[in-house]
Amino acid sequence: xxxxxxxxxxxxxxxxxxxxxxxxxxxxxxxxxxxxxxxxxxxxxxxxxxxxxxxxxxxxxxxxxxxxxxxxxxxxxxxxxxxxxxxxxxxxxxxxxxxxxxxxxxxxxxxxxxxxxxxxxxxxxxxxxxxxxxxxxxxxxxxxxxxxxxxxxxxxxxxxxxxxxxxxxxxxxxxxxxxxxxxxxxxxxxxxxxxxxxxxxxxxxxxxxxxxxxxxxxxxxxxxxxxxxxxxxxxxxxxxxxxxxxxxxxxxxxxxxxxxxxxxxxxxxxxxxxxxxxxxxxxxxxxxxxxxxxxxxxxxxxxxxxxxxxxxxxxxxxxxxxxxxxxxxxxxxxxxxxxxxxxxxxxxxxxxxxxxxxxxxxxxxxxxxxxxxxxxxxxxxxxxxxxxxxxxxxxxxxxxxxxxxxxxxxxxxxxxxxxxxxxxxxxxxxxxxxxxxxxxxxxxxxxxxxxxxxxxxxxxxxxxxxxxxxxxxxxxxxxxxxxxxxxxxxxxxxxxxxxxxxxxxxxxxxxxxxxxxxxxxxxxxxxxxxxxxxxxxxxxxxxxxxxxxxxxxxxxxxxxxxxxxxxxxxxxxxxxxxxxxxxxxxxxxxxxxxxxxxxxxxxxxxxxxxxxxxxxxxxxxxxxxxxxxxxxxxxxxxxxxxxxxxxxxxxxxxxxxxxxxxxxxxxxxxxxxxxxxxxxxxxxxxxxxx
Length: 690
Fold this sequence. Notes:
The protein is mainly α. 62% of the residues lie in helices and 5% in strands. Among the domains are: 8-164, 3-Layer(aba) Sandwich (Rossmann fold); 168-226, no CATH class; 425-617, Tetratricopeptide repeat domain (Serine Threonine Protein Phosphatase 5, Tetratricopeptide repeat); 629-683, Arc Repressor Mutant, subunit A (Orthogonal Bundle).
């Protein structure tokens, strides 16, 4: 599978200076917090969070990831986390990968998690807080991952600004002069401000006339003013770079002495942090960088040269971000054009969509393939249909400007994407799927046929859907096309249930789930189909616990339209079979509302009426295995208040025999308790209303 290269400095632990202030009380606070498992170090910028954690973990094994805005893509985020832990992401769901990383039992530090806003990223982070035994989150604010619940459960240790603030004694050590008490009071112990005051004092400032400037003024009028001109220029112009190396700085600034400048900044203790021992990567303290950047009148040319450097060195993601920041939208669009396949094939759809959304329309007007890739990515990640349709329409307009860029492959891909987006209008989706099959070559034949089969199933024509699935699965490339392969297996499993071939249905459903797990979370629609097939097969087998879990898993993947209605109708039947008649009716009503909102839900209205009839008549089928005469006698006793011993005496059986029969009844009815067995048997018509 294609992938994009790692930025090694993102997973390098920040190096501590030899003269760093020792803070035993902060280290002790972190040590106490670590007993909870998850450590949250949360404070505004400038409180020394990173230094405190680095000092605490000094001489201990630990993995470190410097999180940035590009990590709002779950595959990218956890690929870096895995690399920091010395592992690789395996094929399969991210949650399973996080579980595997947890078994390594190495502390994982995620720095700057406040930049994470993507819903899926935050969901994986929340999962990590539940399973990872040693997780450290450094953030400017509490991440939205149910921190309160984690705290109540005793799984969270916290270190906040009041602990990280300098005491008078610590401030005195840093200041080396002046009235530490007064300065600490005026800055409220804010470490960044105290360090800046210390620099001002070191450069000749009078401690008795401490300026009352705002912090930014203190930096610009006092600290920077005291630097040599060339170093001042270097610091200000390199402030556009989140991470620095001498070769990068030489190229961006068009100089040849960046290595010496970086060393001088280190010697001057100007908030430059070394990120590794030998590769020569650094970063400025975030607050210092933010303040210094205000001195830069026009950062655009510097960003453009940084984009060119990253592009030449094989790091397209960083190149795109700098091109965008520098206003070079043409270069950004070219980079997206060149790398969208790698992003799509590795599931990095969030990154691709963000790039396309933020590019000017003028730069995309003649890039139909990029727009089509974005439309497919939007569909795969469950974006609203209107967004998919908008991107598809834009790709068609761009196609007119660049007809040479459009091939039968792209025509097929557009038709498949349209079919999957039009899930609220089954006839329109069916027509698009038929068009996809008409234009498909070997690369997309399996996907096109699988899409057509899914639409045929939604119309209610199960025999035709089964035949189309057979065509897809018999194609020579079927197993090398996991998306189409899994979708066809899922649809086939559902049709086999309708045909009464349960062993074959189970085999296909299990294979679909296995293929989905091997792909990872690349396409939520295919995940949903596999779980829905599992639910339908499990209900037919009488495995109601598994059925309800599978149906709920499918719904969590946010399918829409007719297919979501099918899952809800299945869940209604599962709940009724479990004796949860009230919940079954509620779920049925939800499905009917969804069907009514569809432009044309295909065969779903008829299916809803059949389900409603089954619920009303209590004819939900029979147990997977019939009850024996003895089991039927015991079943009749369950609605009573008699104990097992009393039932045994009444039927002239031993208590152990009754217990054995009860286990068999529970298994055959898919129940886990006496009450559940009574409800299930009542729903199946084996007992009168109890």
